[in-house]
Amino acid sequence: MIGGRTFRSRLLVGTGKYKDNATMVRALEASGADVVTVAVRRISLDRTKEEGILFHLDPSRFFLLANTAGCYSAEDAMRYARLAREAGFNEFIKLEVIGDQKTLLPDVAGLLEAARTLVKEGFTVMAYTNDDLVTALRLEEAGCAAVMPLASPIGSGLGLLNPYTIRTIKARLTVPVIVDAGVGTASDACVTMEQGVDGLLMNTALAEARDPVAMAHAMRLATEAGRAAYLAGRMARREVALPSSPTTGMLS
Amino acid sequence: MIAQLPRLHAVTDDRVAARGGLVERAAEMASVAGPRLAVHLRTRALTGAEQLGLARSLGAALAVHGSWLVVNDRVDVARAVGARAVALGRAGLSARDARRVAPEIPVARSVHDAAEARAAEGENADFLIAGAIFETASHPGGPVAGPALIEVAAAGGLQVIAIGGLTPANTPAALDAGAWGVAGIRALWDAADPAEAARAFLAVLPAAASIAVTVNGESRAMAEGITLSGLLEQLGLDPRAVVVEHNRHIVRRDGLAQVTLAGGDVVELVHFVGGG
């Protein structure tokens, strides 16, 4: 449940970097996701380059979540958000304000500024941010519908680097926490979901897998497994062994 | 001086307005002529409401291509539909009266001799429609002023549209006499192929001035007077599949036909692509 809308899957997926559109569509289907992210870019005027994603994606089947990827200032991100909304699908925006080209880590000052303005303009803002509790709290105060801390940098596949910060953010926020970026394989997805977060967004882990469709299936299972394990409640960690079999009734 | 005043004017009469297919024929001409065409809705037979309804559909069909809708005499209808100009006949309101009703709409006045031309200038009309220049099929043997009337009308400095018996063959004579453009009734509306007839006129009329517009970062030469919807049409883009930003302002789909581009304008055309 984000911004008053209910989604079935806790896995959200991106649509970028696939080797072809047919593979992308099959991977989306295998992932079971209902929310898919898209980017806003100039249309190609010479008509020879690739067509828009809507030629391949059925917008009645998937919920299109536009992002502001590639924006390096609050102003740019707001401009892209407004253009995305004008496409007429929904008022959701995955807000990214990037602060550093090498790591693609967010510019949290710009992010907060853009989030405040866009919320006032009626957007349902889902903010991509650092795994920093204070920023997450400020984003929630700004009226964001979801906060999306990273597991590790975008496209890195390094997995969940700091489970503690993610757990802390989840514990303190009321709005949904969706971990966005950094997941590399199914175990990463599972461990991330085991922290109790509400959802997971990934793109490169599927698009760059040897078999994106099979990986999408694995990620779907891992997301569900991680969530189920979180709900089940893990056993306590202890530093000593404890036998699983009865210590009584042994033969003399 | 109205820099963007079209050079070709397709003027209706009651006969043309009453028969079916008016909007379709206008759209065919507009698709080849774009901002170089003005269609004048001139009818006395229709009621105000009928005329307004027709003007609305005509205006919508023309606006897509950047062509003008001019409403004759009914300033109220012109204002209600946002016509690009109003043309006043001999029996109509004065230009001064029309301005009181619709101060923002340019006013054309029909003139038939030097005295009427001077009177129209005195009323501050914006341009003149002078005729009949040549003999017409509708009034065979009727009074014909000849190109001399154009010279007389243009002497006051207003732009003159020549009307009455104009064809692509005699259009150069009208232009030589100082006409800004020409108007046709039967020559356009009765043609088997109105688009072809419009094209024949355009071939002998001055070309539209060119403006440079930046579209998605590339500078492109466009005909002066082109609208955003005309730009999309020229690029072969479906307005439903693109979001348009004009000088940093988003323009809604239903407003594309209302925005006329100027030199130096910056247009961004975006859509959704794959992304994370």
Query: Could you say what the CATH architecture of the largest domain in chain B is?
Result: Alpha-Beta Barrel
State the oligomer: heterodimer
> Which stretches of chain A are low in confidence, meaning pLDDT under 50 for 5 or more residues running?
none
What is the string of SSEs of chain A from the N terminus onward? EHEEHEHEHEHEHEHH
**Shape summary of chain A:** globular
User: Biggest sheet of chain A, open or closed, and with what strands and sense?
Assistant: 8 strands, parallel
**Overall number of structural domains of chain A:** 1
CATH superfamily of chain A: Aldolase class I
Task: Please report which band the strand proportion of chain A falls in: under 5%, 5-15%, 15-25%, 25-35%, 35-45% or over 45%.
Answer: 15-25%
CATH class placement of chain A? Alpha Beta
The structure class of chain A reads: alpha/beta
What's the short version?
With 252 residues, chain A is of the alpha/beta class. Chain A is 36% helix and 15% strand.
Task: Describe this protein's structure.
The complex is a heterodimer of chains A (252) and B (276). Chain A contains eight helices and eight strands. With 252 residues, chain A is an alpha/beta fold. Chain A has a single domain, classed as TIM Barrel. Chain A has an eight-stranded parallel β-sheet. In chain A, helix 6 runs parallel beside helix 8. The longest helix of chain A has 21 residues. Chain A is globular and about 85 Å long. Chain B has 276 residues and is of the alpha/beta class. Chain B has two domains: 197 residues, TIM Barrel (Alpha-Beta Barrel), CATH 3.20.20; 61 residues, Ubiquitin-like (UB roll), CATH 3.10.20. Chain B is built from eleven helices and 13 strands. In chain B, a hairpin with a 2-residue loop joins strand 11 and strand 12. Chain B starts with 7 loop residues before the first strand and ends with a strand. The mean pLDDT of chain B is 92. At the A-B interface, strand 2, strand 3 and helix 2 of A face strand 13 of B.
